[in-house]
Amino acid sequence: MDINSLKVLFTEEEIQNRIKELADEMNNFYRGEEVYSVCVLKGAVMFATDLVKSLNMPVKMEFIRLSSYNGGTTTSGKVNAVDISLPDLNGKNVLIIEDIVDTGLTAKFLLDFMNCNFHTKSTKFCSLLDKKTARVTDVEPDYYGFEVDDKFLIGYGLDYDGYYRNLKFIGYIEKQV
Ligand code: 5GP
User: Fold this and answer.
1) 102 is a catalytic site residue
2) Is the distance from the beta carbon of residue 98 to the nearest atom of ligand 1 less than 6 Å?
3) How many CB atoms lie within 10 A of CB 4?
4) For residue 112, is pLDDT > 70?
5) pLDDT attached to residue 86
6) Ligand 1 pocket mutation pick from 158, 160, 161, 175 by most atoms within 8 angstroms of CB
């Protein structure tokens, strides 16, 4: 993939402004509460670290690692739990932080996992991006930053074959068939 062929969808400034808006909503919702954030690696790492910096309640950061992509631009359709070790989340406010909800299979897997293993005080799902038209499940994020078209997105945590997660903006290439 040629980096010069990437078209910018969201600039660094747009991303950071939207994250502050999301954090404001969460600061209102969780007022007086403690939160366990659960960052879904690797894609959500940039978003999660920026988001929690704008949260003003006590936050514990947890990280889990899932995978569903084949390495290129296609999903395998099957969610693999690479590392999903978490502390006892019974009675806690859990905020799952994802990069993008696409088919929704990962979100459904995670929400089912939480339901099966813990009686949380609350479980909220936050995704920076929401590809609503690609959905094959009925899962909807409680918070999302931007609704996006069904394009393959790269940057700000989202990779192309492992690369480009470090871009400060989010760009796209046309879907390959
Ligand atoms: P879902 O299970 O909702 O289909 O997909 C969730 C995961 O697929 C995301 O966490 C992300 O890792 C990957 N994914 C979905 N759409 C894109 C995309 O447009 N670009 C990249 N780089 N990854 C994506």
Assistant:
1) yes
2) yes
3) 5
4) yes
5) 96
6) 158
